[in-house]
Design goal:
With about 475 residues, the chain is an alpha/beta fold. It has 14 helices and 10 strands. The protein has helices at about 1-30, 40-60, 70-95, 105-135, 150-160, 190-200, 215-225, 265-300, 355-360, 370-375, 385-395, 415, 430-440, 445-460, and strands at about 140-145, 165-175, 205, 230, 245-250, 250-255, 305-315, 320-325, 380, 410. The strands form 4 sheets. It has a 4-stranded parallel sheet, with helices on both faces. It is globular, with a radius of gyration of 27 Å.
C-alpha cells in the first residue's frame, strides 16, 4: 500500500492547492462583482503566498497525517487549527507586502470562510473515497502478526471489525498456537524471514510478551533487514488509559506516565472558560426559545414537574444535584424489585411519549448547562451516574472512582464512542470507564472541541444507544 498511499497523500496536497485558488476566485466575486482574478502578477503573488502559508500551517498542525482510523470530527478540529495558524501567517505576510497586496478586511473574512467550507467538504469527500477504496481492496496495508496471545487476538478482531482502518492480516506466526480466530497460520516465529521473502507484507505487528526480549529483538532485526516496518503491542494493560511517553537516557529507554493535564492551573482556567462561554452562547442562541418549548410540551403531555432533579456524584465524589427534563411518569421508582438501580431500557414503560423523543435526541440533558454555569459540571467530561449505580459498581469495576478526579460532563469521550445507555452487559461499564480515563489522561482543549462537534453530529444523525 505504501506507493498507493503516497499517491493518495500527494492528491490531497494538489486538491487543497486547487481549493485555495477557487476560494480566492469566489471571494473576489462576492466582495467585488467583476472578481479579482485577472491573471495579474498580484493575483499570482497572493495565491503563492496563500499556498506557502497553508502548507506551513499544515506542517504545524499535521493536517496531512494518516487519520483514516479516526473520526471525521477530529479531522475538522485539525482543519480549524490549521486555518487559525494559516490566518496568522497570511495576515503577517500580507502586512509585509501591503504595498503590493492591497486587500480589504472584508475580503479576508469572506476568503477564510469560503476556504473553510470548501476544505471541510473536500476532506469529507476524500475520506469517503478512501474508505470506499479500502473496502474494495484497492488501498490497504498487509499485516503479519507475530504472536497469538490475547492482545494479538484483540488486534486481529479490531482490524477486521473496522475495515476502514485499512489493514488486512495475511496471517500470523507463533511457536505454540496454530489457531487464531480464522487467521491463517504461517508456522513458527523462526519462519519470519522466509515469510517476508515469499509474501507481500507491508508491516509486522509484534505481539509477544515483554519477557521474550531476545525473540522480540530478533524479529525487529529481521524486519530491518527486509526493510519492513515493525510495530509492537506492549504488555502495558495497566497503563492503557494513561498518557505515556518513552524517553531515552543514553541507550536506556524510560517509560514516563505523565501527570493529569487538568492538574495544571492554566488548563483548568482554559476548560472553565470554554464551559462558561459555550453555556452562555447556548442559553442566548438556543436555550432562550428551545427550553420553554420543551417545558410546555412536557407540561401538556403528562402530569408532574417539568424538571427532574437527581443526586449524582461530581468532582472528588461530592454529591451534586443534576438537572434534567422529566422523561418518565411522575413518582416512578429508580429501584427495581431486586433492590438494584433500575436503568432505563428500550420500551421502558416508565418513559412518557414526549420523554422518548427527548431521550432519543438527548434534549433531556439541556438543563445541565445550568449545572455547568454553577460550576459543578463541565460541558465535556465523564457522565455523572446516580448514587445507587455508583454504589453498585464502584467495587466491581476497575478504577471506577478515578473517573471522579475531574468534573462530570454533559457529554464525554465514552458517549461519542458509543458507550451510553444501559450497562447491564458484562464489561460495558468497564469499557465506559476506560474511555473516561483515556479522556482524563489525554485532555486537551482541542479534544473537548472534537467531542462537542461529534456530539452535535451524533445528535443530527441519531444514536442507536439513545433511548
Amino acid at each position: 500500500m505504501a506507493k498507493n498511499y503516497n499517491r493518495y497523500t500527494t492528491i490531497r496536497y494538489i486538491i487543497d492547492a486547487s481549493v485555495l485558488g477557487i476560494a480566492y476566485f469566489l471571494a473576489g466575486n462576492f466582495t467585488n462583482g467583476d472578481g479579482f482574478f485577472h491573471e495579474t502578477p498580484n493575483d499570482y503573488l497572493f495565491i503563492s503566498v496563500s499556498l506557502l502559508s497553508w502548507y506551513i500551517a499544515a506542517s504545524f498542525s499535521k493536517l496531512y497525517a494518516d487519520r483514516r482510523s479516526n473520526k471525521y470530527s477530529e479531522e475538522i478540529i485539525f482543519i480549524i487549527y490549521t486555518q487559525i495558524v494559516f490566518s496568522v501567517l497570511l495576515s503577517s505576510m500580507s502586512f509585509f507586502l501591503r504595498n503590493v497586496l492591497q486587500y480589504t478586511t472584508h475580503f479576508f473574512i469572506v476568503y477564510l470562510g469560503i476556504l473553510f467550507t470548501l476544505i471541510t467538504f473536500t476532506k469529507y469527500i476524500i475520506r469517503k473515497y478512501l474508505h470506499s477504496a479500502i473496502f474494495q481492496g484497492k488501498l490497504f496495508d498487509n499485516l503479519l502478526i507475530v504472536g497469538a496471545n490475547t492482545k494479538a487476538m484483540d488486534f486481529y478482531e479490531t482490524i477486521n471489525k473496522y475495515y476502514y482502518y485499512g489493514y488486512k492480516c495475511v496471517g500470523f506466526l507463533d511457536d505454540h498456537t496454530p489457531k487464531m480466530n480464522g487467521c491463517h497460520y504461517h508456522g513458527e516465529i523462526r519462519n519470519l524471514s522466509s515469510i517476508l521473502q515469499s509474501k507481500e507484507v507491508d508491516e509486522v505487528i509484534i505481539a509477544l510478551p515483554n519477557t521474550h526480549n531476545k525473540q522480540i529483538q530478533e524479529c525487529i532485526e529481521v524486519c530491518d533487514y527486509h526493510r519492513i516496518k515493525a510495530r509492537m503491542i506492549p504488555d502495558l494493560q495497566q497503563y492503557t488509559s494513561s498518557s505515556i511517553q518513552v524517553n531515552n537516557i543514553g541507550l536506556l529507554p524510560l517509560l514516563s506516565v505523565r501527570s493529569l493535564p487538568l492538574d495544571k492551573l492554566e488548563n483548568k482556567v482554559l476548560k472553565r472558560t470554554l464551559d462558561i462561554v459555550f453555556s452562555i452562547l447556548f442559553f442566548l442562541l438556543i436555550g432562550s426559545w428551545l427550553l420553554p418549548l420543551i417545558a410546555l410540551a412536557i407540561k401538556l403531555t403528562s402530569k408532574g414537574p417539568i424538571l427532574f432533579k437527581q443526586e449524582r456524584w461530581g468532582l472528588n465524589n461530592e454529591k451534586i444535584t443534576c438537572y434534567k427534563f422529566r422523561t418518565m411518569v411522575a413518582d416512578s421508582s429508580d429501584i427495581d424489585a431486586n433492590g438494584f438501580y433500575h436503568q432505563a431500557s428500550k420500551k421502558d414503560s416508565r418513559v412518557t411519549l414526549i420523554g422518548k423523543f427527548l431521550r432519543k435526541t438527548n434534549l433531556d440533558e439541556l438543563p445541565q448547562f445550568w449545572n455547568v454555569l454553577l460550576g459543578n459540571m463541565s460541558v465535556v467530561g465523564p457522565r455523572p451516574h446516580p448514587t445507587p449505580l455508583n454504589l453498585e459498581v464502584m467495587h466491581t469495576v476497575d478504577n471506577y472512582i478515578l473517573r471522579h478526579v475531574i468534573k462530570p460532563g454533559i457529554t464525554g469521550w465514552a458517549q461519542v464512542n458509543g458507550c451510553r445507555g444501559e450497562t447491564r452487559l458484562p464489561g460495558s461499564m468497564q469499557q465506559r470507564v476506560n474511555f473516561d480515563l483515556y479522556y482524563i489522561h489525554r485532555w486537551t482543549f482541542w479534544l473537548d472541541c472534537q467531542i462537542i462537534l461529534q456530539t452535535i453530529i451524533n445528535l443530527i444523525r441519531g444514536d442507536q444507544n439513545a433511548y
